[in-house]
Design a protein that fits this description.
By secondary structure, the protein is an alpha+beta fold. Helices cover about 40% and strands about 10% of the residues. Strands 1, 2, 3 and 4 form a four-stranded antiparallel beta sheet that branches.
Amino acid sequence: MDHINSLIRKWMPHQQPVAVDSNPKLHGVFDTINATLAASEPRVRLPEEFYDTKAREYMDRILMEEEYAGYGENEEYRTLGIGHMLGEVTKRMEMRVRATARAQGKRVSALGEVVTSQGGEGMKLGLFACHDSTLAATLAALGVLTGENARWPPYTSSLAIELFTDDDNKQKDRGEDQKIRGGAAAGFYVRLKYNNRFLQLPGCQEHGDHLRGRLDMCTFVSIFGPLDRISWW
């Protein structure tokens, strides 16, 4: 914070130092900087000190820690923070899994009759408009807000959560193990694509938890659990 304040404190009301809980908050300053950088109008500009590369990197790191560190520490934090949205996504994918499984002649639990009655089993594409904080929270909850992803999502960021089924049964080496672990969801896979990059989720890196030879294609069960015990919401 010393480096940040050495540059922009003089522009703050009464020259008060900027902090996470100051007024204006560090988050507000950071948002304003990014908004002006995205503006095409050259007159929409802050003093040059606000655009110092090192200061912006420090702001990004501090705010990411403040906002999302808790997602990796506590299940209740994840549930309260992003559970409702992820639960809705999961529910729609679950409906598709159940409908496809029934069409393939697999046995599906009675819960499916309740869930699929909402009309989502024929859905092939769902679109959600959300905030940058929603995207980052989703990545944090799934354990992939790391490395080059551990930065505040830039404007126009997108996250695709894709559902696949292995119609050719290429996972023959799984044998009975796949049937036991997957049940009706066996043979279904999930892939995440963030800003045109495929992600490798830490929850599916073990043998049998992803499509053979594809670490980015996680089994549905390894990510979301058995159909009768999905608990994001």
